[in-house]
Structure formats: structure tokens, C-alpha cells
């Protein structure tokens, strides 16, 4: 097997229909300013086997450098030994080019349990160290199950309260509505002290290159809660941000927002709605973990592994 470093167009042509939006050339072209350099890697035996793009920041090669996770695109079925050889080639490249380290933040296992499990095993065998284990939460969509049936008892009570509070659920269509939704998220993050890593301009640029849905929950003309959701692939959509503003917690708007978003994607026919982690650098936000479990989410692990060369 050989490692090739190519331009973005060649990379996109070879990997074809990507499994992860975050592996697309368009995503990396949009975010390349966030790294000192963006590199497109292809691994080739008799045929091309895998491809992945990473970013170099302060002589550290990062997968991802500006996304929730990174995983190689499997172009052709790859055996465990071929994955191992690909990582060895990548490590050799990093050492030759005097990289201080290589980092992989892998997706939660439900995205591709077999290949992600193999990749994690390969990384550990190649002396990568686990830096963090985040807890990710997701809805497994089942058209035969009503949303109310997956809720814990306290969430059922909170949902009933929200349903009587005269909220309206709106799917945002125009730019003005979408920006209003972002402003709700902005207020929520500021109030709770959570990081907001994307500006409105960055959200605008990203939704131009991927399928997405943005929602508002309002009451008597007041925007109370919102959700911003990206399409990762045809089977999985990911909640990038959601939250509510101050002053309405007693009416439980987030419980109603969760129900409406769940039912929207249940009707859409996807397999998984990724709600995202409730940890920051591996440290749990216990209240957020409890809330997501109460509204019917399942929990899975999301590992970050790193190998140092200097």
C-alpha cells in the first residue's frame, strides 16, 4: 500500500459519494482557514482503499481540525491489516514531516460499528493513547414507536406541561427565520456558559453546502427555543445546536422541541438522529446527560486518541 497526498478535487473524485459530510471536499475547502494546512490523503493498494482529510495546526496533524469527528472514507472494503498499514504510513508521513503528534477523534460507534471498531483497535495497537472518552447521545428512529413511549416518567410530565403552554413549532425557511434561530442559540450558550464555536456567518456558509433543517419554537411571536440540524449522510442527521432562552423553563420548551424534532425526522425516515455529546473534553455535564436520557436518547462512547512523536 502507498500513501498519496492529492489536491481536493482529486480526493473528491476518488472517494466519490462520501459516507460523512465532514469528509467532503466542500466542507474542507470551507474550513481550510482554521488550519495552517489542509492535507488530502489517499491510501492505495491494487485499488484505492481509503481516504481522509486532516488539518495541521502548530505542527500537530488533526483528524478532525474543524468537525465533530473524523473517520476515513472506506472506498473499498478494507481488512484490518490494510487499515493498520494505512495508519503506519500516516505515522511515517507525520514523523518525516516533523509533526509533534497525530490526533483522531472518532465518531460514535453507531455511524459504522464494524469499521470504527477496527480503526480504534488499529490506533491502540499503533500506540495511540486515549485522551478523552465523550458520551454521545442519539435517538434510534423507529416508525413503530411513538415518541411518548420512549420517555422517562419525569419527561412525560414535562412534555405534558409544554404541550399546554401554547407554543408553535416552525421549520425555518428564509434567511431571516434561520438567523433568528441562531440568535436563540447564541443567547442560550451565553447564559449557560457553553462554547459557541460557529458564528452566524459560518453557519450560513455551511448550510449552503449541505442539507439542513432549522427549527424555532415560539410563543405569541417570541422566539423561545431553536435547533440547527445538519445532514451527515442519508441515514443520520446531527443536531449541531439546540437550546432555549431564559424565562420559560417552567413551561419546558425543550421537551416540546425534542418531541417535534424527533417526529419530524421519524416522518423523514432516517435511521439515527445524533443529538451530540454532553461532555466537554471528556468531563460530563450531569444535568445535560440526565435530560437527554429522560427524553429518550441512548448513550454511546466517542473516543479521541493521540500519538506523540516529539
Task: Report what the structure shows.
Helix content is 35%, strand content 32%. The protein is an alpha+beta fold and 310 residues long. It has two domains: 2-133 and 303-308, Aminopeptidase (3-Layer(aba) Sandwich), CATH 3.40.630.30; 142-270, Aminopeptidase (3-Layer(aba) Sandwich). Strands 1, 2, 3, 4, 5, 6, 7, 8, 9, 10, 11, 12 and 15 form a 13-stranded mixed beta sheet that branches. Strand 9 and strand 10 form a beta hairpin. The longest helix has 18 residues, at 175-192. It comes from Roseburia intestinalis.
Gyration radius, rounded: 20 Å
Strand fraction equals: 25-35%
The percent range for helix content is 25-40%
Number of domains: 2
Structural class: alpha+beta
CATH class label of the largest domain: Alpha Beta
Give the CATH H-level superfamily of the largest domain.
Answer: Gcn5-related N-acetyltransferase (GNAT)
Biggest sheet details: 13 strands, mixed
Overall mean pLDDT: 95
First and last CA, distance: 26 Å
Q: List segments where confidence is low: pLDDT < 50 over at least 5 consecutive residues.
A: none
Order of helices and strands: EHHEEEEHEHEHEHHEEEHEEEHE
- CATH fold field value of the largest domain: Aminopeptidase
Instruction: Output the number of helix runs.
Output: 9
CATH architecture designation of the largest domain = 3-Layer(aba) Sandwich
Care to count the β-strands?
15
Global shape: elongated
Protein name: GNAT family N-acetyltransferase
Question: What does the secondary structure layout of this molecule look like, with pairings?
Answer:
Blueprint: E1 2-6, H1 8-15, H2 25-31, E2 37-44, E3 48-57, E4 60-63, E5 73-74, H3 80-96, E6 101-105, H4 113-125, E7 129-140, H5 153-163, E8 168-171, H6 175-192, H7 200-207, E9 212-219, E10 222-231, E11 236-244, H8 253-268, E12 272-277, E13 279-280, E14 283-284, H9 286-294, E15 298-308
Parallel strand pairs: 4-6, 11-12
Antiparallel strand pairs: 1-2, 2-3, 3-4, 3-5, 6-15, 7-12, 7-15, 8-9, 9-10, 10-11, 13-14
Helix pairs in contact: 3-4, 5-8
Amino acid at each position: 500500500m502507498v500513501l498519496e497526498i492529492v489536491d481536493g478535487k482529486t480526493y473528491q473524485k476518488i472517494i466519490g459519494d462520501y459516507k460523512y459530510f465532514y469528509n467532503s471536499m466542500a466542507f474542507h475547502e470551507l474550513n481550510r482557514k482554521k488550519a495552517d494546512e489542509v492535507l488530502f490523503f489517499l491510501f492505495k493498494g491494487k485499488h484505492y482503499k481509503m481516504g481522509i482529510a486532516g488539518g495541521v495546526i502548530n505542527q500537530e496533524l488533526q483528524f478532525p481540525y474543524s468537525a465533530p469527528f473524523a473517520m476515513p472514507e472506506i472506498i473499498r472494503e478494507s481488512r484490518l491489516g490494510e487499515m493498520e498499514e494505512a495508519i503506519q504510513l500516516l505515522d511515517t508521513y507525520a514523523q518525516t514531516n516533523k509533526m509533534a503528534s497525530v490526533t483522531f477523534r472518532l465518531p460514535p460507534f453507531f455511524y459504522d460499528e464494524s469499521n470504527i471498531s477496527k480503526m480504534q483497535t488499529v490506533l491502540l495497537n499503533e500506540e495511540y493513547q486515549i485522551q478523552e472518552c465523550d458520551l454521545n447521545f442519539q435517538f434510534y428512529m423507529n416508525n413503530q414507536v411513538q415518541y411518548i413511549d420512549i420517555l422517562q416518567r419525569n419527561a412525560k410530565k414535562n412534555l405534558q406541561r409544554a404541550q399546554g403552554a401554547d407554543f408553535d413549532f416552525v421549520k425555518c425557511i428564509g434567511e431571516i427565520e434561520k438567523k433568528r434561530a441562531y440568535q436563540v442559540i447564541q443567547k442560550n450558550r451565553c447564559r449557560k456558559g457553553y462554547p459557541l464555536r460557529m458564528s452566524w456567518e459560518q453557519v450560513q456558509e455551511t448550510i449552503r453546502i449541505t442539507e439542513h433543517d432549522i427549527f424555532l419554537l415560539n410563543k405569541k411571536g417570541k422566539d423561545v427555543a431553536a435547533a440547527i440540524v445538519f445532514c451527515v449522510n442519508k441515514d443520520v442527521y446531527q443536531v449541531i445546536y439546540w437550546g432555549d432562552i431564559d424565562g420559560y423553563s417552567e413551561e419546558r420548551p425543550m421537551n416540546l422541541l425534542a418531541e417535534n424534532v424527533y417526529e419530524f425526522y421519524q416522518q423523514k425516515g432516517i435511521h439515527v438522529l445524533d443529538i451530540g455529546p454532553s461532555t466537554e473534553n471528556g468531563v460530563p455535564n450531569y444535568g445535560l446527560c440526565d435530560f437527554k436520557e429522560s427524553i429518550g436518547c441512548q448513550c454511546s462512547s466517542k473516543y479521541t486518541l493521540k500519538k506523540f512523536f516529539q
